[in-house]
Amino acid sequence: xxxxxxxxxxxxxxxxxxxxxxxxxxxxxxxxxxxxxxxxxxxxxxxxxxxxxxxxxxxxxxxxxxxxxxxxxxxxxxxxxxxxxxxxxxxxxxxxxxxxxxxxxxxxxxxxxxxxxxxxxxxxxxxxxxxxxxxxxxxxxxxxxxxxxxxxxxxxxxxxxxxxxxxxxxxxxxxxxxxxxxxxxxxxxxxxxxxxxxxxxxxxxxxxxxxxxxxxxxxxxxxxxxxxxxxxxxxxxxxxxxxxxxxxxxxxxxxxxxxxxxxxxxxxxxxxxxxxxxxxxxxxxxxxxxx
Length: 291
Fold this sequence. Notes:
This protein is an alpha/beta fold. The chain is 39% helix and 22% strand.
């Protein structure tokens, strides 16, 4: 976890009073760096500068971490929109300062875990369907605004039921986690990786054409085809393959398209891949919709 301490000159006396645990890092910056706070991914921000400047900073933004405000008197009109916040009177008592810091860090950790639990799949740690639709709606809105493409890749593990039936559900879970890890190693920071169904995964690829998404999908399909999956008590690898469908927004000219239609296009392409032999990726734009 990161504590960021901001002061007028970047050298606050509070820094010497803070007792850090091994997993906590403290950084100090002056006010010229205040606008860039997100890049340091803080768990806690300590705002040790003029209260009017703090009021101005906090009034126009929602801060996604905990905030501690040292001040001589507790201000009545200061509004802090943060994950959690607290005040401490200065000069600060060393014990009280560290108790408040630990409490804010604990609150940050707890709330972040609650958020993660709400939007992530328990088994794989990937995002869940609820988060997928939220993000895909946002990416399509951005695509409409800026005229950039966004692609959807739907992946399904071929013959997954056979793995469960032959080796048991624990080995099915191991395979799901392995596939999730392999996908996670390929995606970019801006991509959205989701567990969509029992053995289905969706990757949302912003600013990516269908052809570019196809390159990504084919690379992953070949990686899976080569993967070593050897369940317990088996001497040889169990062959694993995946099928996939790729669709991009916009797809059909003059059609009213949204997140649901984009996923539906990818589902059509996936179904086509399954019906034509599995272990392949199909592009929605290449399908003969009239036939």
